[in-house]
């Protein structure tokens, strides 16, 4: 699957939930979900059939993929890694996705959306423990320090996002604002730290066949 370049509000309407793909617009009355909460995209809405068991599992997987911005091959790689790990496979899968650096940058408030966070990381604005990391899929570990490269262009963009940030920093993270914003990973995230309603068991059932 290639990169999606169409209107991202269609993705939120398709899943029937806010995926927070357009920064502050998602918290405004302009949000497509606010305007048409029960109206999925496409024609012939009244003729849609009842969703099947397979369809419900597929929609759950697509929702999570679009929320974190990963492709099918990446998603299956996370699934394989979670399957080889100890503990509950579904919880481990969500923990791996939450540990992505682009997700961490967004949840700290350094970026208004995950697409913007991927751009910040990819352009070399973010450092982990003092070293520049430009891989959005980098998995953070407990104790890591997330900082912004000490140059005016990088700091201006992040400070502007922090001023507009209206969300709540999750419990597994901490953030220090100021002239040089810094975030810390206090512990590894769990299923309770995921900010959207998700049923990992449905995804496991779909991909384990």
Question: Would you kindly provide a brief summary of this structure?
Answer:
This protein is α+β, with helices and mostly antiparallel strands. It is 42% helix and 8% strand.
Question: What can you tell me about this protein's structure?
Answer:
Strand 4 (173-176) and strand 5 (182-185) form a beta hairpin. The protein has helices at residues 9-15, 32-35, 53-68, 72-84, 89-98, 101-107, 114-122, 152-164, 200-207; strands spanning 126-128, 131-132, 145-148, 173-176, 182-185. It folds into two domains: 9-97 and 194-207, Ribosomal protein S4/S9, N-terminal domain (Ribosomal Protein S4 Delta 41, Chain A, domain 1, Orthogonal Bundle), CATH 1.10.1050; 100-185, RNA-binding S4 domain (Structural Genomics Hypothetical 15.5 Kd Protein In mrcA-pckA Intergenic Region, Chain A), CATH 3.10.290.10. A five-stranded antiparallel β-sheet has the order 2-1-3-5-4. The two termini are 21 Å apart. The protein contains nine helices and five strands, in the order H-H-H-H-H-H-H-E-E-E-H-E-E-H. It has 209 residues and is α+β, with helices and mostly antiparallel strands. The model has no long low-confidence stretch (mean pLDDT 84).
Task: Set down the secondary structure blueprint.
Elements: H1 9-15, H2 32-35, H3 53-68, H4 72-84, H5 89-98, H6 101-107, H7 114-122, E1 126-128, E2 131-132, E3 145-148, H8 152-164, E4 173-176, E5 182-185, H9 200-207
Helix pairs in contact: 3-9, 4-5, 5-9, 6-7
Which characteristics define this entry?
5 strands; Ribosomal Protein S4 Delta 41, Chain A, domain 1; 209 residues; Structural Genomics Hypothetical 15.5 Kd Protein In mrcA-pckA Intergenic Region, Chain A; 2 domains; 5-stranded antiparallel β-sheet; 8% strand
